[in-house]
Structures are given as structure tokens and as C-alpha cells.
Amino acid sequence: MRIAITLALALFAAPALAAELTMYKNPSCGCCQGWAEYMQGQGWKTKIIDIDEIEQIKRRYNVPARMESCHTALIDGYVVEGHVPVAAIDKLLKERPRATGLAAPGMPQGSPGMSGTPEPFVVYLFGPDGATPFMRF
């Protein structure tokens, strides 16, 4: 019984155990740094790689042009494009859908790492078959 409880707790803790990300960003982008700091504040170990040709990363990881934002992160086998809130990432890692990843296209005002009055925005789940709304903020 104790082993079953320990195993169940380990399964529910999976997103926390995978709390590492690698983020590719332009060296001069301040909002990207803001998102990294937001993620660090949420307990994520964050490796930042500055790259002048960020478009190469987006192509390498199959980010559709209409889903692009200013930075691209790799999290536990998924691509996370842009200012995606941690709630969407936690849901992604819990549900583990067959997809390339999540995207918050553009740079939504007030999203994690972005300043200004928050505006409503959608986080999309994307993959080879297209993109669908995943969460609304």
C-alpha cells in the first residue's frame, strides 16, 4: 500500500520534477528576460541561450510562423513559444497531449514578462496538424 501511495505521489509531482527549461532569445530582448525571471520565480531552473538568429531555432523546432513570439523554450520534450503562463505549461505537462508544444503568439500585453495593462490572450496547442486554443487568459 505504501508503495502505491508513493508511486501515485510521484506521478502527480511529475511537472515539478521536470521543472527545467532551456530558453533561446535575442541577447537584447528585455521581455524575454522578464519571462525567464517569472519562470524562475515559479520554481523553474532556467537555462538561457542568447542567439542572434532566433528564426533558426523556431524552424528547427517547427514553430509555425503564425504562432511565433520573441523567444522559444524547450520544456520536457515540448516547445513553448512566447509569454506562456506557467498554468498552461503545468496543464500541458500533466495532460501530455500529442503535440509539438504551446504558443502565445505575438507579445500579449500584461502576459508573464510583458508590462502594461493585461489584455486577454489565448495560448495555443500546436503540432503538425495545426493549432487549437488550449487556454484563455
Automatic annotation (TrEMBL):
Residues 1-18 form the signal peptide. The keyword Transferase does not apply. Keywords: Signal. This is Secreted protein containing DUF411. It comes from Magnetospirillum gryphiswaldense.
